[in-house]
C-alpha cells in the first residue's frame, strides 16, 4: 500500500507547500470549496492553496472525471478505492513535476480567499463510543458503581446521531436550551444548558456501498473507509444526564456537530496504519466476525490529537488557545474496520458519505481527556486559563479548536486542518 | 378547520371510491407511484385508483404546481399548510363534481397495476417513545425493578434512528444477525436473532422548516405535522437487550423500518383531532414550553389501530391474518405537537420529509399491546395461531400487517392502507 506518493522527500512546486504543517503534497485531502465570488467545486488542499479539481478534470484520470462534476464528494467515494488512488497519483504528479505548473496554476486559489463547504451530502450519521478511557471516565460520573458496562469489550457500542445539525467547522454554537434537573431539584426546568461541553472525535467518511441485508466482512472493511476528519460532538451534560435513559442521548447532542472541511483520505493515511494496541490481559477476544489478522496488524492509526480553548478575553488579548488536552487516536478500543463491520453486521446498509464518529478519544493519563467533563471531573476541578478565568464547562465566547496530525517516523506528517467553534449566548 | 371536504355525505364520481374503506374522497392522501411501465410521479389515492397529480398539475392551484414536478413530496411539504389545503380543496372539487370527470379520468390508474414508492427523501428519522403503556410493559421486562424511569412523564423521550433502512411496506425483512448473549451465557455469540419482533407505530412526516438554532413554539407546532403513516419498527429483542446500554438501541432496530406508502395529511385528519386524555391524578403538569390549551383540547387523534399476523401455513391455507392487537392512538402520553416542539426545543432543525415515529402504541388492556414481546410476556406465553402453530416471536415466513383507521362519530372514517412485511430467513 505504501507508494511513492508517501516519499517524505517529495517536493511540490506550489509555493510554501513543502513547509505547510497540514497540507504538503503527501496529504492531498479532498473537499468542496468556492473561490471568492464563484460557485462551489471539488478541490484538494496544497499548502495555503485550494486546487480546483473540477476545473482540472480534463487532466485527471478518466475514472474520476464524471464524479468531479457536482460540488459534493459522494460520487467520488461511490467509486472503487482504485479510482481515488489513481486520482491521488495524478494529483501528486501534477503538483510535483514542474512541467505541469503552467497548466495547473490557473486552478489554484489562495485558501484564505475561499469558502469551504460540507464535503458530503450525509445520508446517516452514527456516533460510536470506542474511546475506552472516555467510556470509563464518563461512565464513572454517570454510573459511579458501574462505569464500563459488561457489553463494552464485546460490542463496538454506537448510536444514531442527527444529520441535519452536522455543520462545517466555524459554525457558531448557539448555547442550547433543554430540560435540566439536578439530582436534588424537585422538578426539571427548561433553561439554557449550564454544562456545555465539547467532545474530541475523529469522523470517518464511508466509501462504497453495501445493500440492505448485506454484511461487510472485516477483511474488506478498510475499503469502506473513504477518509477521516475531525469531529466535535458538542454536548449539553445536564440535558444528557436527565434525558439519556433508557434510549440514549438525543437533544443533549443534536443541536450541532462540527466537522473539519478536508477529508484526509484512506490512501493518504496508509503509512500511518499501525498495529492495534494489545488488549489488556484478561480482556475477551473479539468475536470472529470482528477479528482479522491484517486489522490487528494495521487497524489503528498513528494520529496525534489536541484540543485548545481560547476564551473571548484570551482572544481579545491576542493570546493563543490554551492546550486543554493532547492524546492519540490509538486510544480507541475498536478499529475503524471493526466499527464498519459491526455496523453492517445486521445487514444495515452504509452508503458513500455516511459519517461515523469514533466517540470521544481520551487517553489513559491526565492531560489526554477528550472532554471538559473528564478534564474538570464533572466541573468539580475547574481549569485555570492564562487570563485568570476558570472553566468548569464552556462559557459564552469560548472558542474550542480540535487539531490532528498523522505522525510516524520515516514519513512526512500530514494534518487535518482544524475544527473550531465559538459559543454564542442562548437566544 | 373543519370544512366541506369533511362532509360525510360527499360522493365521488370515481367508481367504488365511496365504498372504499380507506380512500374515500374525504381522505385524499398523498404519495408517489408509477403506473405500469411508466416513471414515478406524485399522486393521491381515491378508491381503488391512483390519481396522477403531476399530470393533473395544470388543473391544480398555482401554489402547488412547481412542487408537483419531482417524484418526491418534500417540495410540497416545504410549502405553507395553506397550499396543501388549497390542493385538497381542488382535488375534492375535481373528484366530486362530474363536470370534471372527462378531464380527470385520463390521469386515473388502477392501484393494483401501480408501484408505490417511498414518498419522501428522508433527511432524518427520529423514533419517540410516547406509548406509555408500551414503555411500562417493556420497561418492566428490561428493568423489572424500574419500568418507567423518572424522566418519562416530563420529557418526550426519543432517539435518532437510521434513515438508510427505512423502506416501503412490502419490503421483505431478512432476519438479521447480531450479537446475542442470554443472561446465563458466559459470552455473546454472533447469530441470527431468535427474538424478532414488530412494533406498531404511527409515522409523522414533518412539514415546513425551522433553521438550526430556532425552536418551534408549541402553539404553532401542529403546522409542522405534514401527515401520518403507519410505521413498523422491527426489533431484534435479544440484540437489543445486550447492546442498548448505555447509548440506546442501535443494530437491534436499524436493519429495516417499514412505512405505509400514503401520507394521510394533517388536513384530512382535522376532524379526528380530539382532546388529550387527562393525565392520571398525581402526574406532573407539562413544562410551559410543552403546554398549550389548543393542544390539550385537540392534540390527540381518534385513530384505531390493528396488527395482524399470518404465518406461511396460514397464507397457504388461504386464511386471513389473525388479529394480534387492537388499540387506539389516544394511548400516547405526549401529543405530536409536543414531540415536535420538544425535538426543536434545543434548536435542532427539522425539515420537510423528516420522519418521526411515535414509538410503540400499546393500550392499557390485554389485547391492545403493540409488540409481540408485550403480547407473549417476553416469549413466555406464546400465542396460538389458527393452524395450531405457536408464536413467541416472529418465525420465517410470518407476515405482519399494521392497519389504522381514523374514526369519529359524524365523520366518514378514513384509512391509512396497510404496512406489511414478511420475514425471510437469515442469509
From TrEMBL, chains A, B:
Residues binding substrate: 129, 143, 240, 244, 360
The Fumarylacetoacetase-like C-terminal domain, residue ranges: 152-420
Domain Fumarylacetoacetase N-terminal, first and last residues per copy: 26-119
Alphabetical list of Pfam families matching this protein: FAA_hydrolase, FAA_hydrolase_N
SUPFAM superfamilies noted in UniProt: FAH, Fumarylacetoacetate hydrolase, FAH, N-terminal domain
Enzyme active site: 134
Pathway stated in the Swiss-Prot or TrEMBL entry: Amino-acid degradation; L-phenylalanine degradation; acetoacetate and fumarate from L-phenylalanine: step 6/6
Necessary cofactors: Ca(2+); Mg(2+)
Record-linked InterPro entries: Fumarylacetoacetase (IPR005959), Fumarylacetoacetase-like_C (IPR011234), Fumarylacetoacetase_C_sf (IPR036663), Fumarylacetoacetase_N (IPR015377), Fumarylacetoacetase_N_sf (IPR036462)
Gene Ontology biological-process entries: homogentisate catabolic process; L-phenylalanine catabolic process; L-tyrosine catabolic process
UniProt EC number: 3.7.1.2
Keywords: Calcium, Hydrolase, Magnesium, Metal-binding, Phenylalanine catabolism, Tyrosine catabolism
Binding residue positions for Mg(2+): 233, 253, 257
Molecular functions (GO terms): fumarylacetoacetase activity; metal ion binding
Uppermost EC category: hydrolase
UniProt-annotated binding residues for Ca(2+): 127, 199, 201
PANTHER family membership: FUMARYLACETOACETASE
Protein name (record): fumarylacetoacetase
